[in-house]
Amino acid sequence: MRHIISLLVENESGALSRISGLFSARGYNIESLTVATTEDPTLSRMTIVTSGSDRIIEQINKQLNKLVDVVKLQDFTEGNFIEREMMFVKVKAQGEAQRSEVKRLSDIFRARIIDVTDTTFCIELTGSGDKLDAYINSLHETNVIEVVRSGSMGILRGEKALTL
Amino acid sequence: MELSGSEIIIQFLKDEGVKHLFGYPGGAVLHIYDALHQQDDLQHILVRHEQGATHAADGYARATGKPGVCLVTSGPGATNAVTGIATAYMDSIPLVVITGQVPSHAIGSDAFQEVDAVGVTRACVKHNFLVKDLNKLAETLKKAFFVATSGRPGPVVVDIPKDITAPHIKIPYVYPEKVEMRSYNPNLKGHPRQIKRAVDLLLSAKRPMIYTGGGVIMSEAANELREFVRKLGYPITQTLMGLGAFPGTDPQFIGMLGMHGTYESNMAMHECDVLIAIGARFDDRITGVTSTFCPYAQVIHIDIDPASISKTVNADIPIVGDVKDVLSAMNVLLDKPELPIDKSALEAWWNKIKSWQSQNSYAYENKPGLIQPQAAVEELYKVTGGDAYITSDVGQHQMYAAQFYPFDEPRRWINSGGLGTMGFGLPAAMGVKLAFPDKDVACVTGEGSIQMCIQELSTCLQYDTPVKIINLNNRYLGMVRQWQEFFYEKRYSHVYMDSLPDFVKLAEAYGHVGIRVEDPKDLHDAMKEAFALKDRTVFLDIMTDREANVYPMISSGKAHNEMDLSPLQQKIQADMKARGETV
Ligand SMILES: Cc1ncc(C[n+]2csc(CCOP(=O)(O)OP(=O)(O)O)c2C)c(N)n1
Ligand SMILES: [Mg+2]
Question: Which residues have a Cβ under 8 Å from the Cβ of B217 and sit 6 or more positions away?
C-alpha cells in the first residue's frame, strides 16, 4: 500500500544521504521525496512517499525513527491530511488551434500558464498526483516537451501539526 | 583552559575516562599524535593494521562494557578500519572511531589520502559526524560517546579535518558533562501494561521457552536474568552472542540454539507454546526459515531497539525497553511465594527436554591418533578452569568453542557473531588482555582466520599482552569445506590451506613461544604449558582432524525440528528408537 510519511529532520549535510541510503540499503521503494528547510533554519521538513506491505512500512517507519538525524516522524496515511504536488509542463503551442486547446485544458484543470514563447507554453499546476497525471494524459503525448514534478508534500488537517 | 583541537581531543578522552586508545598514525592525524606524545595518562596502542585497532577496541569494549576508542588517519587509515567498524555495528558494540581528514579547504578536491569517511562508513555506523568547527569539537565528541554507549549501542565515527587539530589555534575548553540531542533519546523503561501482560502469558504457559541474546550482556542484566529464570524454573537457551549471561553449566540452560545449537534447544524452540525473546533479534542463523519458526508459540519480545521487534518474527507482546529495566520490573511481578504455574505441564515439558538431551547432540567420535577439535576446546576449558576470556575467529573452531566452553559469566565469550569477521580473534584478545592483565585470555582460531590479522602478534609483544592462541589447525577453511562436503558433493573449491607457514617459527620470529601439538596424548601437557607461561604470548598450533564437522546442524531452508545429526548421533538415535525411547 502507498504511504506518505512526513519527517522533521536535523538540517545537517549528511541527513538526506542517511535517509536515501536507508531506502537503498534495505531495498525499500521511494516514490518521491521532497525536502526543504522550515521556518526554523535548524530543521528540514521532508515528505516521503513509499509503498510496501504492512511489515515493510512498519520497518520503514521504525528504521527512519532510529536515524539520529530524524527528530520526529509521522505516517500520515491513516489520518486526515492534505497532499499536494506541483508540476511544470512545457508543451508545444503552435498555431491558433493548438494554443487555444492548451489554454482551454489549463482552465479546466486550473493550471496557470507562466511562460510563453511563439511555439511553447510553460504551465504550472498544483494538485494531487492523480490530478497531475490526468492533466498530462489530457495533453497529446507528442506535444509534451518537458515535465517537472516536485513530488508530494503533506500536511495534517485541522489543529494537529507535526512540530517539535 | 585554552587548548588546540588536538589537545581538546586528548583532554576530552581523559575527561571521558578513556584509558586506552588503539591507533595508527598518518598525515591527517599528525597534530593529534604530537599532542599524544606530550602526555602519558592516555595509553596509545600502536597496532600493525587499522583493522586490528578496531577489533582490539571492540574486544576491549565487549569485555569491559566501556566504549572502545580508535584513532586512525584519513584515506587508507579510515578504509582499513571499516571492517572493524562493521563488525562492531552488527553486534551493537560501542566504539568511537576518530578518523583524520584532509584539511577543510581541501575536502572534495580528491586531495592526497582523501576519502569521504562519513560517506564510506555511513552504512555500518550507528551515527557519524564530520567536525566542521573547532568550537563544536568537544561537544561533538561528547555526542559521539553518548550515541555509541546509549540505547542500542554501536560504533560512531568522528571525522576531523586536519586544520581543526592545528596546534597554534587554541580555544577555551570545558569538558561537556552532558549533551542534549533533541533527535535522539532512547526509551529505556518498558510499558508497564505490556510487562504485566507478558508475565501473565508466561505464567499461563505449558511449554515455555526463554531465548536470550547479546542484549542481556549489553544491558548488564545478567543478574536480573538469573533471578528471572530461576524464579520461573523454565528452560533457557542463549544465542551465540548471549552466552554467559546465564551460566552455561546451570541445568536450566539447555544449550545454545540455532544453526549449530543443541538438538534439545532447537526442538524446544519448535515445540514451545510461549517464547520470550530477551535482547535477541531473531537472526536468520537462529530462526532458520521464519515460516516454520516456533509454529506453536506466542511470542514476547523485549528489545531496546523498536526496529528489532517484529522485523523477521512477529511479536504478540512487544516490549520496547532496556532489558535490565524490563526484567527488574518482571521480577517484581514474579516476587510471590507461590507462582500460578501449571506444575505438571512444566514437569512434562522438562521430561520431554530431558529425552532430547539424552541424544547428546554434541557427542563426537574419537579417532585414534587424531586430535578432535572439540577435545582441544574441552582441554582448554579444563586447564583454564572455565574462567578464561575466550575470543574467537570465524569458522568451525568458533562453533566448537561456543559448544564446548560453557561460559558462566557474561563478557567472557567474545566473537564476531553478526558480521562473522575472520581476523577478529587475535586483536580482540589483545584488547581484552589490556583491560584484564591478570586474567587468562585465549583466542580460539583456525589457520585461515589467524592469518588475517597475524601481524598483531607484533603488537602483543610491544604492549606485553600475553594471550594464548589456540590454533585449531585443520589445514582447511574448515567451515567452507564442511558446506562443500554437505551441499556441493565434496567439491572442495579453494578451501585447502596450502603452503601454510610454520606457525611455531612464526610465533618465535615475533618474539613469542610456539608449541605444536600433533598427538592427542600431548594435548593436555601442551595446554598446561601454554597457560603456565603467564607472561608470554603462546601460539599453540594444534593439528586437528581435517575432516571433523560441526554438528548438529540446521541446513538452510530447514526448521528447528529438522536438524542434521552427526553420523554418530544418528546411530545413537536409531538405537534409542530401537529401545522404544522417545527421541
Ligand atoms: C573476512 C572473511 N572472509 C571470508 C569469510 C568466510 N568464511 C567463513 S568461515 C571460513 C573458513 C575459516 O577457516 P579457518 O579460520 O581455518 O577456520 P575453520 O573453519 O577451519 O575452523 C571462511 C573463509 C569470513 N567469515 N570472513
Ligand atoms: Mg581451518
Answer: B241, B242, B244, B245, B279, B410, B411
Q: How far apart are CA B192 and CA B204, in angstroms?
A: 19
A119 in contact with B, Cβ within 8 Å: no
> CA B347, CA B353: separation in Å to the nearest integer?
10
Q: Quick check: A123 and A113 in contact, CB under 8 A? A: yes
Give the whole-angstrom CA distance, residue B261 versus residue B265.
7
Within 8 A of A58 by CB-CB distance, chain B residues are 310
Residues whose Cβ atom is located within 5 A of ion ligand 2:
B 446-448, 474, 476, 478
pLDDT in tens, B190-230: 999 999 999 999 999 999 999 999 999 999 999 999 999 99
DSSP class per residue in B302-341: EES-GGGTTSSS--SEEEES-HHHHHHHHHHHT-SSS---
3-state secondary structure of A2: strand
Condensed to tens digits (0 to 9), the pLDDT of residues A34-88 reads 999 999 999 999 999 999 999 999 999 999 999 999 999 999 998 999 999 999 9
Return all residues near B201 (Cβ < 8 A) that are at least 6 apart. Answer: B274, B298, B300, B316, B317
Please report which ligand is nearest the Cα atom of B418. Answer: 1
Under an 8 A CB cutoff, do B123 and A25 touch? yes
Closest CA to B35 of B3, B67, B57, B75: B3
- Selected residue of B183, B185, B303, B320 to mutate for chain A interface (largest A Cβ count, 10 A): B183
ipTM at complex level: 0.92
CB B45 within 8 A of CB B20: yes
Rounded to 5 degrees, φ, ψ at B27 are -50, -45
Q: Which three cell numbers stand for residue B126?
A: 550507528
Cell numbers for B41: 595518562
Q: Are B497 and B447 in contact (CB under 8 A)?
A: yes
